[in-house]
Structure formats: structure tokens, C-alpha cells
Amino acid sequence: MAPVARYRKRKGGGCCGTATVNCAAGRTKWTPTDSLAFVGGPPLFRPPEMPVYISVTFTWDLPKAHRLAREWGRYYRSVRVGGPACDDPGGDFTPGLFMIDGVTITSRGCPRRCPWCVVPRRSGAIRELELVDGHIIQDDNVLACSRPHVERVFEMLGRQKKSAQFRGGLDARLLRDWHRSLFDSVRHNELWFACDTRAGLKPLARVAKILDGIPIRKRRCYVLLAFDPKETVADAEARCEAVYELGFLPFAQLYQPFSRTGETRSYPRDWRALSRKWSRPAAYRKRKRIPVDPQGSLAL
Ligand code: SF4
Predict the structure, then answer these.
(1) Is the CB of 119 under 6 A from ligand 1?
(2) Digit-coded pLDDT (tens) for 224-265
């Protein structure tokens, strides 16, 4: 999300104010666009007195979020900073509040304990939420939900006008054959998996078989870089290439440890170059082409 200070009218009358802030990248495609969403500090013409919430996604934005809180605090009595970067567990999902309309969260939490991830500590075990319509699924680990919940999610997706996107990530270890029928029952254009360690390649290879026939442009994969101090740049690049060979478009991200003060880990140039290259399909696809048959499936 982007640096946003956001106000929103509460359904059924009365007003509550919310503000979300993520100062890293400016406005992004996730930023709400309604008239009660603001990017940065308070504007000249401001809404009336109401609570302000500043939601921060990434810890490195915390110093900017606190600066914005001071700025909004000059005009509003109640200003709060929260969100994932503050370890907020997250309650029920309110559509359009901190993310664009279309994004929905049907569950929170995760049963796993990946050492690089804040979700288990922040949100705890998986809990299924009441379904709210949307076509972009942003759950922490939707495949860890019960089968009836997952089936209800796909029923909901089948009612949406736009193609489904699974942006929150699909746990490759939990994907089963019956999920394929559900994917085939709805329009979709982004299925995001993850391969954060070398060990992640094996379940991804199994997923590749289940997804056979789904074009590579829809098959995406987050690739965490530099979490394992023993992994070299060459090892990490080999992992990115292996993900690509399996028929997924890698999206590389350098590991940043959780920090309450917003400190970030800096990386040498070769790690940064690797991350840049493997986070832009246009950069790596032109160097190496995987043969694709006319139906869009891979000829591996
Ligand atoms: S499976 Fe995903 S959400 Fe769960 S702990 Fe691991 S990285 Fe985090």
C-alpha cells in the first residue's frame, strides 16, 4: 500500500476516520481511491473531526508513519498508527478500508512457522472469517482453511465480474488435485505460490503438474532471497531459474527482518542486482525463453 491517510464513513451513519500510511513507494495500485483516502500529510481542506488510523504495512515505513501521525495530530484529536508493521493481529475484514475495492480477506493466520514470516506471531493460528465479496484474495494462507471454507471462497469468486487473483500466496505443500477443479470453475489471472528455500522446489514441482495447462503468465511465485546466510548469490539465482523452469514467473524479494524501529538491512550490489532482475519478468524473460505450446502450457 502507499502513504495514505484515510477517512471513511461508517456504514449506518456517524463517522469514523481511518488513515493508512505506507511511505515507501508512494501511491500504488493497492491504494484506495475514494475521496476519504489521503496520501501523506493532511490537506488544506480537511474532513471534519473524526478518528484517524494510520496503517503501515512495512516496518521500514514506521518512522514516516509516526511523522505523519504527528502532522495529522495537529488537526485531529485521535490518531492511531497500526497495521501489519505494528504486529496488529487484524480483526474482521472491512472491504475498501485500507486497500482498494476488490481486495478481500477470507481468513487470517497460518498453521506453519516459517522463520522469516511474521504471520504466525502476528495473527496466530488460522481462523476463517465471514466472507466478503472481492476478486483479489489476500489471505495469509487460504489453502490452510477447511475444505468447505475454500469451496465457499470459490463460489464467491464465481460471482465476481473480474478474474480472481490469489495475491496472498497459495501454499504449495497444501495444493491438492481437487483444488484444480475449483481453479477451473472460475476465471483467474494470478495464482501466486512461494519458493523461499531450496526445499520449496519439490512441492512447487508437484504444483506444476497439478496446474498443467494453465499459462505461465498466470503462474507466479514469490522467491525470498538472502534469508539463509549460507546461500550464495549463485545459489539464489539457480533457485530463481529452477522456479522459472518449472513454469512459474519468479518475483524475487530480498529478506528484511522485522524491526519495530523501521531499520532496514542493506545488501551488496550483487544481491540487489539479482533481486531487481528476478522481480521483473520483462528483464529475465527476454534472456531465456521457455517454449510454450499454442494452448499456453509449457513444453518442459
Ligand atoms: S506458510 Fe506463508 S503465511 Fe504461513 S508462516 Fe509460512 S510464509 Fe508465513
Answers:
(1) yes
(2) 999 999 999 999 999 999 999 999 999 999 998 877 777 789
* Secondary structure letter of residue 53 according to DSSP: E
Cell readout for 265 is: 538491512
User: How far is residue 209 from each of residues 111, 145, 176, 248, 290, measured CA to CA in Å?
Assistant: 25, 22, 11, 12, 16
> Closest residue (by CA) to atom 8 of ligand 1?
117
Ligand 1 neighbour 253 (Cβ under 6 A): no
DSSP at 47? P
C-alpha of residue 110 to centroid of ligand 1, in Å: 6
Task: Report whether residue 120 contacts ligand 1, using a CB cutoff of 6 Å.
Answer: yes
DSSP-assigned letter for residue 292:
B
Predicted pLDDT of residue 224 = 96
The C-alpha atoms of residue 247 and residue 298 are separated, in whole angstroms, by 7
CB 161 within 8 A of CB 186: no
* Euclidean distance between CA atoms 2 and 99, whole angstroms: 9
| Ligand 1, atom nearest to 116 Cα | 7
pLDDT of 8 reads: 35
At 147-182, the pLDDT tens digits run 999 999 999 999 999 999 999 889 999 999 999 999
As a whole number of angstroms, the distance between CA 299 and CA 187 comes to 23
194 or 48: which leads in pLDDT: 194
